[in-house]
Write a structure and sequence with these properties.
Structural class: alpha/beta
Distance between the termini: 72 Å
Shape: globular
Strand order of the largest sheet: 2-1-3-13-6
Mean pLDDT: 94
Strand content: 5-15%
Low-confidence stretches: 1-25
Helix content: 40-55%
Bound molecules: beta-D-galactopyranose
Length: 420
């Protein structure tokens, strides 16, 4: 009887192993995985590193890396909208954590709930609680974050500043003092590019002018965009714009960064994907080859955004997408992607030894600064507001009228349900 039992036990164990093996076999994925993003060209290397991790784990899947070029997704988002509304969603697409995801695609019931995946992978305790709130609603968790980017950063070349006898401005008043000096030397004080980079600069100026509490109050509806403080933001923004390049609208963000690298311009306010570009593409060393500081007037404040990917409803290869999302949320995937991207990991347990000095400083600031959400990159407002805000910006660039812009911003806030 004893013998029989141990034989039975051995047979059962063998069966269990076979079962596991078969499950592992069953997980051999095949077919395609279409990933949709705006990380093309110079923005591509980090995504490619992530895809490499995926391919190693899933050699049977053919990855289609579908990109539509254009910083901050200016062109990609329009294509994505057509595809989603036309019932032709990619297997997974890039979307910012916050209102761009929740107030747009979750609201339209286009995304699958990923709560089981988060629980299974132990992500509930690995991602910061505040970030999980931004990608979640009462009904679920809707995407997997791949990074934390900082939006309020000013970039410069230390050697050039030395040559010109200036320092990085700590406040916009400092900037407005040093700007005419630079102009006399034939240097553009602040390089800027196409329209969305104006929105990007605007949010850093607003954060400096309002402070983080009042910035937040804009999005809860407690502070009106056309309040005196709101008008003051546009006034300051207008003064700063006088010291930017006139060919801005024809430039990509990388070309504005190039102006700084070449010494045609002194400064550029851009998110820290610029750190990725400067180190990964331009091969400049952080600290010596290129320098950075919190954008003027925002020391101690970290305006953040996070790129994420989700599982849209009705995709052709949901299993392949799930495997992709697992890679995105993993430590291995995150630490392959972020050191090239200029961002820090969204996970709290990343291996900082893999990151350069810029990223290390961003990680330290993220841990101790006052955190605020980015408008230009989807955290604080839905797509409706963002699209309308682009028109408000265009109007301001023509009229340079702060009151008019502030009033228009308040109108679009009401129209798009901001603070409701
Ligand atoms: C942001 C995005 C970044 C970077 C940047 C420039 O919206 O979150 O990852 O791609 O645009 O294109």
């Amino acid at each position: 009887m004893k013998l029989k039992f141990s034989k039975m036990f051995a047979a059962l164990t063998a069966l269990c192993f076979l079962g596991l093996f078969q499950t592992a076999q069953a997980k051999e994925l095949t077919g395609e995985l279409e990933i949709f993003s705006w990380w093309a060209g110079d923005e591509g290397p980090a995504l490619e590193a992530l895809i490499d991790v995926y391919k190693t784990q899933n050699p049977g899947v053919e990855v289609v890396n579908a990109t539509v070029t254009g910083g901050s997704g200016v062109n990609a988002k329009a294509v994505l909208k057509t595809r989603l509304l036309g019932g032709n969603p990619p297997d997974s697409f890039q979307v910012h954590a916050g209102q761009e995801l929740i107030g747009t695609w979750v609201k339209a019931d286009r995304m699958q709930d990923l709560t089981p995946l988060f629980k299974e992978e132990g992500w509930m305790s690995v991602f910061p609680e505040g970030l999980i709130k931004l990608i979640g609603t009462e009904d679920g968790i809707w995407s997997v974050p791949v990074n934390i980017h900082r939006s309020n950063v000013v970039w410069f070349i230390p050697e050039n500043l030395k040559k010109w006898g200036i320092e990085a401005p700590k406040t916009w008043d400092d900037f407005l003092k040093v700007a005419p000096v630079l102009e006399k030397k034939g240097v553009v004080p602040l390089a800027i590019a196409q329209n969305w980079t104006h929105n990007h600069l605007w949010e850093s100026v607003a954060l400096a002018s309002l402070g983080a509490d009042k910035w937040d109050a804009l999005w809860t509806g407690e502070l009106a965009f056309d309040s005196p403080e709101g008008v003051a933001v546009w006034e300051l923004f207008g003064k700063i714009l006088k010291y930017t390049n006139s060919d801005a609208s024809s430039l990509s963000w990388q070309q504005a960064t190039d102006m700084v690298v070449d010494g045609r311009a002194a400064f550029n306010v851009m998110g820290d994907w610029a750190a990725g570009y400067l180190s990964t593409t331009k091969k400049l060393a952080p600290g010596t080859g290129f320098g950075w500081a919190a954008s003027p007037g925002t020391t101690g404040q970290f305006m953040f955004l996070a790129d994420s990917f989700g599982l849209p409803k009705g995709v052709p290869h949901p299993e392949n997408t799930m495997a992709w999302l697992k890679v995105l949320g993993s430590k291995e995937g995150s630490d392959a992607f972020n050191p090239l991207k200029g961002s820090i990991s969204a996970r709290t347990d990343s291996d900082l030894s893999k990151y350069n000095d810029y990223a290390k400083s961003a990680a330290a600031d993220f841990g101790k600064n006052r955190i605020a959400g980015s408008l230009a990159h989807g955290v604080t407002a839905n797509e409706g507001f963002m699209n309308d805000f682009t028109s408000v910006m265009e109007m301001f660039l023509k009229s340079k009228n702060p009151e008019m812009a502030a009033k228009a911003a308040q109108q679009i806030a009401v129209k798009n349900g901001i603070g409701k």
